[in-house]
């Protein structure tokens, strides 16, 4: 990690003059309670700033490079230990291997019933030994490829109904969210058809299932966004998630799973057996919901609606009360070593989006500002993989080096 250029010279001057530089106040207060490490951060702490080196080291999705560079819907991407990048495309059901500079190497998967082929591709995960695991349908269907991209085997754990997770962790276990009514979508549909209340938040649990299905550990509740419905089925009926809602966010590393609700400035770290190890808290900045935010939500809700359905959703909008502020944070991620990344809410007028990085001890170590419009899909100690969408809705995967 580089020191800002003025710190070392000033420190040398102070020491030469016999003065001792004043100690900086701690970034956070930590204590342990019943084996759980609790980390409370102070307000207005200035942290070292990491940056993305621009231009990116690789851009995948440039159409002149050939069909392998034509991305239709990136479902995920991972970086192998030797720098190779694997990108999953939901529409073609393919996983494409590229070198660290974005040159295409090979393509695996695809639609069909043959070895390594699948009906649906919903997740791209990496486990120990640079083994690629593609998640297919039904949830629990997994397709394994070795470090060279050769198909190894397929298997089905479960199967389970689709939720918001369904991801393979580095040891081969499965991370799920399950619901009393089956799938996340079915839970909402049951409420839409039978529920008496006009507002509803689907709630399930986050579970860890060992690779051989011999052990299932529950980490806690899984909350979805709150929904509102008006009218009656087939009679001026309209339903949609309410604007600027919070929900449960989940991330994972080699040895831990991170869980946080977006309405609280807190992320909890669990070990692979479901035991709570650490709680990280910080002082949030309130970000208001502006008139521009409200207008953008209305536009996105009505865009593409059939003319005969627009009045129903306009009536739905008339019954919506927008919140005063946005959720505390936008997303969480973790690298394989267990470094936690939290995407803060973007202040009004800012042209950048900020991530705060927390070390293994839970103490904040840096911030990193990224340009608007990047969807981060993978982080590690030195690189960020992010999806960028152009004005024609074409997707590109960019690989950035992180300058510390």
Could you walk me through the main structural features you see in this protein, from its secondary elements to its overall organization?
The protein is mainly beta. The protein has three domains: 24-53 and 246-287 and 325-372, no CATH class; 58-159 and 374-404, Neuraminidase; 161-242 and 289-321, no CATH class. 10% of the residues lie in helices and 44% in strands. It contains four helices and 30 strands. The protein has helices spanning 7-16, 184-194, 291-302, 310-318; strands at 28-33, 36-41, 49-52, 58-60, 74-79, 85-89, 94-98, 104-109, 121-127, 131-136, 139-145, 151-160, 167-168, 174-178, 199-200, 203-209, 216-223, 227-232, 235-241, 248-252, 256-261, 266-271, 276-281, 329-334, 340-344, 352-358, 364-371, 374-379, 383-389, 395-403. The strands form six sheets. Strands 3, 4, 24, 25, 26, 27, 28, 29 and 30 form a nine-stranded mixed beta sheet that branches. Strands 1-2-23-22-21-20 form a six-stranded mixed beta sheet, with no helix packed on it. Strands 5-6-7-8 form a four-stranded antiparallel beta sheet, with no helix packed on it. Strand 24 and strand 25 (340-344) form a beta hairpin. It is globular, with a radius of gyration of 23 Å. The model is unreliable at 1-22 (pLDDT under 50).
């Amino acid at each position: 990690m580089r020191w800002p250029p003025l710190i070392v010279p000033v420190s040398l001057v102070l020491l030469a003059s016999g003065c001792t530089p004043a100690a900086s106040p701690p970034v956070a207060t930590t204590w342990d309670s019943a084996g759980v490490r609790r980390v409370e951060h102070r307000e207005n702490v200035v942290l070292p700033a990491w940056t993305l080196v621009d231009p990116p080291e690789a851009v995948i999705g440039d159409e002149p490079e050939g069909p392998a560079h034509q991305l239709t819907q990136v479902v995920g991407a991972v970086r192998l230990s030797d720098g190779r990048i694997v990108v999953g495309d939901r529409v073609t059901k393919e996983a494409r291997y590229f070198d660290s500079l974005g040159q295409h190497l090979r393509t695996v998967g695809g639609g069909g019933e043959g070895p390594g082929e699948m009906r649906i591709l919903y997740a791209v995960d990496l486990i120990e030994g640079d083994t690629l695991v593609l998640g297919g349908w039904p949830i629990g269907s997994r397709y394994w490829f070795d470090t060279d991209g050769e198909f190894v085997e397929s298997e089905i754990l479960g199967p389970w109904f689709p939720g918001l997770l369904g991801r393979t962790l580095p040891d081969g276990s499965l991370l799920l969210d399950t619901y009393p009514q089956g799938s996340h979508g079915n839970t909402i549909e049951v409420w839409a058809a039978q529920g008496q209340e006009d507002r509803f938040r689907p709630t399930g649990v986050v579970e860890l299932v060992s690779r051989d299905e011999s052990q299932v550990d529950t980490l806690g509740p899984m909350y979805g966004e709150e929904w509102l419905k008006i009218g009656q089925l087939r009679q001026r009926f309209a339903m949609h998630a309410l604007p600027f809602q919070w929900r449960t966010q989940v991330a994972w590393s080699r040895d831990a799973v991170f869980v946080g609700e977006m309405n609280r400035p807190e992320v909890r770290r669990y070990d692979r057996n479901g035991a709570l190890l650490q709680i990280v808290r910080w002082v949030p900045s309130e970000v208001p919901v502006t008139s521009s935010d409200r207008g953008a939500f209305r536009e996105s809700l009505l865009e593409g609606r059939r003319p005969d359905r627009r009045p129903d959703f306009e009536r739905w909008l008339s019954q919506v009360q927008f919140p005063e502020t946005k959720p505390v944070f936008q997303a969480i991620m973790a690298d394989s070593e267990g470094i936690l990344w939290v995407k803060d809410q973007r202040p009004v007028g800012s042209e950048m989006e900020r991530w705060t990085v927390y070390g293994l001890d839970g103490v904040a170590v840096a911030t990193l500002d990224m340009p608007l419009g990047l969807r981060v899909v993978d982080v590690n100690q030195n690189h960020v993989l992010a999806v960028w969408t152009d004005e024609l809705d074409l997707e590109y995967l960019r690989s950035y080096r992180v300058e510390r």
